[in-house]
Amino acid sequence: MFGDTEHIAIRLFGVPRFEVGKQAFFPAKGFVLIAAILLSPGQILTRQAAASLLWEDVEQKRAMGNLRQLLSRLQSFASEEDPLIVMSATALTAGPMASRSDLALFLSAVQSDDIAVRTRGLLAVEGELLHGADTGQEQFHLWLLSERNRMKDLFFGSLGQLLEDTTRFGGRTAAQIPALADCALRLEEDREETYRMVIAAYARAGDLAAGERIYDRLVRQLRIEGRGPEPATLALRRRVQGYAASHGEKDSPAPIRATGKRPRVAFIRPARIDGASAGSIVQAFVEDIANSLVRFRTFAVLSPHSSFAAGSRSDDSYGALRADYRVEATVFDQMRVSFALIEEETGEIKWALEVVLNDRQLHAAFRLLSKQVAAALAEQIERLQMEPTRLHDAGAYHHLLSGQQMLSGKCDLPLLRRSRAEFRKAADLDPGMSVARARIAQTLQLEWLMLGGNDPHLLHRAKAEAEASVESDPALGIGHWMSAVVALYQRDFETSAQKFFEAEALAPNSADLLLQHADALAHFGELSLAWERFQQAIDLNPFAPDIYWWAGASIALKREEYQTALQLCGNMEDDEPALRVLTASHALSGNLLAARETARRLQENYPGMTAREISGLSPDRNPAANEKLFQAFRLAGIK
């Protein structure tokens, strides 16, 4: 296979050229011969067929002599260790150097399951095959015309699938889309189907503006030809515009501006639960948070040097600080640090979070609390100044509870959609109810998963709702949690890990959040931590809904504990969402009869999807995990 770091030695797409240092004239018929060998069945070409193709008007004996001379000349461009063509008495095959041509790369890449390999193979196509080759001979002309058409069909067929695979999970616009579009339009600028492929890809990636630019480019091209877009193109554009109008991101709540005097915030010297002073690392930690808050203009942060000193004295020096709020940090066992924002006038705790400062998380915790939680704390102070007694709309709260009740049982599409309708009513009645927006995001992500992961628009909408939830209330963990889940399924593993850390710091005792974090850790490859989080979640919610057992079974499957996975699926009221886990667990434990039965049900849910496509739904950082799923599905009889 063509290595990722190997340089292309021979260009056969576009104007042929030899790119391995030698400046000597490379024979034109040499390019044709190499292409003919690579395009032959099994990449083997008989000497007689080669001579006939290159010298069809020449008597056979002389044509064979010309071929020998050409092969002799080509040997000077290679070495014995790295030949261009491997010769036998009757046949010719491609040597290692010929296998480093753009044509060989392309032919190999289109057979690959690796998106990066396929992308490189298609981008190697710089033009039509053997551009400018002399086609004066009839047999050669027909052969070249046929092969050019075959390569174009293969290219455009592969392009459509590649664009779909690249944008299948939405996320940020794939950098490959514009490069692939330019490559395809260089090859055939007026092929309208290509424009539709690219517009659809940009729509799946969430970049509707880029798709509109491609449409404008098509209109300009068609205007030159004196015609308009085809009905299929107009229909696609209407669908994309309809999506933008109906499912675009809702306006996020406007940031709340504090009014009146600027409140003063004091950070108290951190202490252990027994009252003793905390270690120097925790003090530095708290100072870092305070320093991160000084950029906000809506409140004043007192210097930790003074607030630490005043807060530790028994006299009236603390009163001299004139603080409106204080932030207390208490260190528990195993370096768990609890933070609380306390209003001085009432002594009421207005905001709290907890974080563990172990060796593994220390750097991430500093980054989190200095940048993310500082912003959440600032938002909370501003909100307290603006609307200190604000309550949620009673009707909105009723719809929220109704939606959450529907989510607490079995997990199926009708219930998901009904619960989303309830959450949407809550958000419409009370735009500031961030938990409703986060729950909408949750139902969208679950629907995406249950529908086979083929509609990235659902993930775009889920991401927009999660971000709106965070914007509405940065101190609420559920918005960060759903942002983390969506990032995971969009294969943005770094963002997902950071968002889960933030969410767990803000809501350390949420069973739902612990469960989702457990599932994410399993996809990150941290299986021991994943199982530990899952057990914590079950401990907090022992009579859990189906989604808990589904997630736990998925973790057990990755831990190769197949019987445990099957037992956990047995706890589900409706095992349909866990059919992938059931099928793989039965297959990998050797129970192929049961595996084939669950595989039949699985294929009914994902009609037309291959074993490779179904295994690709799992967003695992390590490709080996998906490969194991693929092999399990094949054992179960899925093609």
Question: What structural class is derived from the secondary structure elements?
Answer: alpha/beta
Strand content: 5-15%
Fraction in helix: 55-70%
**In angstroms, what is the radius of gyration?**
32 Å
* Quantity of strands, as a count: 11
First-residue to last-residue Cα separation = 24 Å
The overall pLDDT average reads 84
The number of helical elements comes to 27
Domains counted in the coordinates: how many? 5
Q: What coarse outline follows from CA principal-axis ratios?
A: elongated
The largest pleated sheet is described as:
6 strands, mixed
pLDDT < 50 runs, ≥5 residues: 248-260
Q: Brief description of this entry?
A:
This protein is 59% helix and 7% strand. A hairpin with a 3-residue loop joins strand 4 and strand 5 (91-94).
Structural summary, described in words:
This protein has 639 residues and is an alpha/beta fold. The protein folds into five domains: 10-146, no CATH class; 167-247, no CATH class; 264-386, TolB, N-terminal domain (Rossmann fold); 393-495, Tetratricopeptide repeat domain (Serine Threonine Protein Phosphatase 5, Tetratricopeptide repeat), CATH 1.25.40; 509-639, Tetratricopeptide repeat domain (Serine Threonine Protein Phosphatase 5, Tetratricopeptide repeat, Alpha Horseshoe). Helices cover 59% and strands 7% of the residues. It contains 27 helices and eleven strands. The strands form three sheets. Strands 6, 7, 8, 9, 10 and 11 form a six-stranded mixed sheet that branches. A hairpin with a 3-residue loop joins strand 4 (85-87) and strand 5 (91-94). Helix 21 runs antiparallel to helix 22. The longest helix is centred in the N-terminal third of the chain and has 29 residues, at 138-166.
